[in-house]
Amino acid sequence: MKVLIVGSGGREHAIAWKCAQSKKADIVFVAPGNPGMENVAQLIQVQNTEELIRFVKDEGIRLTIIGPEQPLTKGIVDEFIKEGLAVIGPSKLAAEIEGSKVFAKNFMKKYRIPTADFEVFDEIVPALDYILEEEFPLVIKADGLAAGKGVFICNNYTEAETILNHIMHQNIFGNAGSRVVIEECLHGEETSLFAFTDGTHFVSTIFSQDHKQLLDGDKGPNTGGMGAYAPAHFTKDLKKKIDDAIITPTLKGMKKEGRTFRGVLYAGIMLTQNGPKVLEFNCRLGDPETQVILPLLDNDLVNVCEAILNESINEVDLNWKNKSAVNVVIASGGYPGAYEKGYPIKGLDKVSDETLIFFSGVKKEKDTLLTDGGRVLSLTALGNDLKDAQEKVYQEVKKISFSSSYYRTDIAQKGILKL
Ligand code: AMP
Ligand code: GLY
Question: Can you name the CATH fold of 123-178?
């Protein structure tokens, strides 16, 4: 069959790479993709959802997977379903679990899903009054989508006041910042868990861990993610606890709200002294966690998607390689702030065949790949354990260079220290 992936980042490259290995997939398309993905997929350029749907019908595509949150929160899945097309991802109503932090927090409160205590504000003056009385650190979040950059941990009143001004007065996130959530700062280790769900049942993956902050030692501003590893060092008991206390009530609650969630539910979790608590829900696979999860997954991804569509995901057992994976993102200097692009990427041909290269922000000029985004590409290596995978990936990362490139040097270190 023909398969289509929507999106253009490293996550979509990993999904396309995995689908290309499926016995069932003859051709994989990516819309719009990027030229770094041409090794596994054909790139399609369309202007809008209408054109995309026409392409799907004309080509007879039997499975479409939507990668990023933006089209999901805008309702692309509803458009596909109206046309009777097979698509993986939640409806617009269900995607609001990521699209609005206010919705997600109120939902969690209603269904008693453990999360940080919070208040919602739609005006700056009451928000400033509130923080005057609160203890620091506290966390300020823009309500809407902000590419992973809308969350701020504030250590004192002045910092919080500045952030509130930026979000609610100077509107740095536009409409996405017209409301904010102010919440308790949770402490502990973070982990990501994905649940493939048909709306009623689910199967969840192994744990992975993203590195959201820019600098080594989890310092600096939040980014879209600078690297990831899996499996993270947490136990089966903990997974069961999270499945029971977080994923199950979330899916039940969403159904009850008339927002049945089908696709991949991403729970970003803080493991606190008082148990696991939800930091955020996302309505899709994580980036860069997908770049470590899919290389470790033994199942055919097309089969898993078909089980979501046939509402038989409860019959699927996910099987995992007995290996560890580490992914390191190479970014443009300046990211997540302003950065330059258009620099040639050197050394790609020197990377070992065993290492996976997933491209995100690249373009092609005369057969040369040039940088074209903040996160440019990432490398994934598999190893017998995390340390082995980490050593392997950094050996390869060193071979790649472009003007003012930047990467973290401690991806997976937290996991290795726990070995
Ligand atoms: P979010 O987009 O809500 O996941 O937030 C991005 C990142 O900010 C998370 O991965 C955490 O590292 C951090 N974060 C979010 N909420 C909190 C919180 N309540 N306490 C501590 N850190 C948080
Ligand atoms: N890795 C963070 C995200 O995908 O939102």
Answer: Dna Ligase; domain 1 (3.30.1490)
Q: Which amino acid is at 228?
A: A
Return the amino acid letter for 114. Answer: P
pTM tops 0.90: yes
Nearest residue (CA) to ligand 2, atom 3: 286
Q: Which CATH number fits domain 2-89: 3.40.50.20, 3.40.1180.10, 3.90.226.10, 3.40.50.720?
A: 3.40.50.20
Measured CA to CA, the distance from residue 89 to residue 95 in angstroms comes to 8
232-242 pLDDT, tens digit each: 977 889 999 99
- Name the architecture of domain 189-315: 2-Layer Sandwich (3.30)
Q: Is 163 exposed, middle or buried (0-12, 13-18, 19+ CB in 10 A)?
A: buried
Domain 324-417, classified CATH 3.90.600.10, yes or no: yes
279 Cα to the center of ligand 1, angstroms:
5
Q: Compute the distance from residue 61 Cα to the ligand 1 centre, in Å.
A: 38
> Nearest ligand, CA of residue 284?
2
Burial class (CB in 10 A: 0-12, 13-18, 19+), 94: buried
